[in-house]
Amino acid sequence: MSKLKELYPLTFVDVALFCVDEQGLRVLLVQRALEPEIGRWALPGGILKPDLDASLEAAARRVLGTKIGVDISHLEEVRTFSGADRDPRGWSVAVLYCALLPRDQIDAVAKNKVAAVDWLDPFHIGHRLAFDHALQIEAALRLLQNKVKRNALPLHLMPELFTLTALQRTCEAVLGRSMDKAVFRRRIKGSEDLVETEEFELGRQRPAQLYRARSGFLFE
Amino acid sequence: MSKLKELYPLTFVDVALFCVDEQGLRVLLVQRALEPEIGRWALPGGILKPDLDASLEAAARRVLGTKIGVDISHLEEVRTFSGADRDPRGWSVAVLYCALLPRDQIDAVAKNKVAAVDWLDPFHIGHRLAFDHALQIEAALRLLQNKVKRNALPLHLMPELFTLTALQRTCEAVLGRSMDKAVFRRRIKGSEDLVETEEFELGRQRPAQLYRARSGFLFE
DNA sequence: AGAATAGTGTCTGTCAGACAGTATCGC
DNA sequence: GCGATACTGTCTGACAGACACTATTCT
Q1: How much is the pLDDT for B204?
Q2: Given an 8 Å threshold on Cβ–Cβ distance, is B83 in contact with A9?
């Protein structure tokens, strides 16, 4: 078996699942129930199973389903992490994926097969994480921020119907800075992915028009 | 052994090595000397060897050295390709890297351990390629183009000293379209990575000032 | 002088940032 | 009316595209 490890790397998939709540941007972490790094917080992840998985992306989707009970359509590869030292079990490859969860489905996360799950601020993780997962979160966060900087709309983070102000708050949460309202609206008005509805969100003030994402929209 | 294949994927690294010659942008392909896909053209690549390689990127660097005798400092991961069907030897993962070769080192390519090597136009590959390498070239090309579109300067493609016109021709070769000279110069004048020299390239016409890349520059 | 290429000046439209203004609700 | 939030108008500076212009070499 030790001979095997010299020939075949262990292959993992890890997922950085982001959402936005009242506190801002959040990333899902799970507390490890097994060695190695037992008790430490980590990104949800698992071993690639060639007999079960059609691809690495499919493996990531399976892991999200079995470990935390969520079904995410939109997964994007971030990059790989590899080497002999990143996991005590041996030479390993981890392929990191980034995923976004709509803010009205935050509570849908179950905790199958893990000790605990929690949403944490990716800008200030309070824990010392397992393996190289602090690095992984940083890489996923940067990918997400770069896309939003390039005017991609993170509509996967929004509920079915949302106001433009809510969308702006979401982009601000991702970037970690506030934006000018008029500038933001002017920029996104041209987007094909944004569909106006006839509905309004009522509140204590002037009602805000509701929008929805175009079906089949991409986060690009 | 067949049991093994159900547990461990084969892990490959492939490299799309680009250069620019008089014809425009080129990508390096090698003709396979072994089964599977013997005789077909493919990107240079090889199996990850955990006992030799410190990381996937190191593996890519080793493959470039042993197969075609070039030593490339700058490697960038593009993405992974995976699944049961992409290689007849079994469930596999291929991690694709992109690399750039200076135009004055084009002839440095040797052909160790492969039947033949050739530089081909990545926009119009004439051959039917091995595995999913046509897809891989497309992905690497898009990465390269996107960086140049975002005003990154592909200085790794340039020789030690070069004129601004030569740099523009290189960018045009990458993008596959021509650019306005004044616009191009205005844009790159602000770049920290571009260092003016006192030397000039003499020719049949007005001499052109020579530039060099700042040492430690990044392609971003 | 003329050809050829290096390099610059300028007009125009577009868009981001900043900020103030108007509109429409609940109370 | 007042507070609060939605939404819009406008000024300004930066920059891209287009294109014409000047500069410097060789023959």
Answers
A1: 83
A2: no
Given a cut of 70, the residues of chain A with pLDDT beneath it are: 1-6
Q: Decide if B50 and A84 are in contact by the 8 Å CB cutoff.
A: yes
B1-53 pLDDT, tens digit per residue, is 446 656 789 999 999 999 999 999 999 999 999 989 999 999 999 999 999 99
Q: How far is A21 from chain B (nearest CA, A)?
A: 31
Cα separation, B204 vs A205, whole angstroms: 73
Instruction: Please answer yes or no on whether B8 and A80 come within 8 Å at the CB atom.
Output: no
Nearest to A54 among B5, B83, B95 (CB): B83
Among the listed residues A77, A93, A88, A91, the one whose alpha carbon sits nearest the alpha carbon of residue A139: A77
Q: Each residue's pLDDT tens digit in chain B (220 positions)?
A: 446 656 789 999 999 999 999 999 999 999 999 989 999 999 999 999 999 999 999 999 999 999 999 999 899 999 999 999 999 999 999 999 999 999 999 999 988 889 999 999 999 998 999 999 999 999 999 999 999 999 999 999 999 999 999 999 999 999 999 999 999 999 999 899 999 999 999 988 999 999 999 999 999 8
**Alpha carbons B57 and B15: distance in angstroms, whole number:** 10
Distance CA A82, CA A92 (A): 6
- Among the partner residues B4, B7, B77, nearest to A80 by beta-carbon distance: B77
Contact yes or no for A95 and B80 at CB 8 A:
yes
What domains lie within chain A, and their CATH numbers? 2-149 (3.90.79.10), 155-213 (1.10.10.10)
| Radius of gyration for chain A, computed over Cα atoms and rounded to the nearest angstrom | 19
- The model's pTM is 0.95
Chain B positions with Cβ closer than 8 Å to A: 4-9, 11, 48, 50-51, 54-57, 77, 79-80, 82-84, 90-91, 93, 95
- Chain B interface mutation, best of A10, A80, A87, A136, highest count of B Cβ atoms under 10 Å: A80
The closest alpha carbon to A177, from A145, A155, A134, belongs to A145
How far is A130 from A143, CA to CA, in rounded Å? 21
End-to-end CA distance of chain B: 44
Bridge partners (DSSP) of residue A163 are A210
What is the pLDDT at residue B1?
A: 47
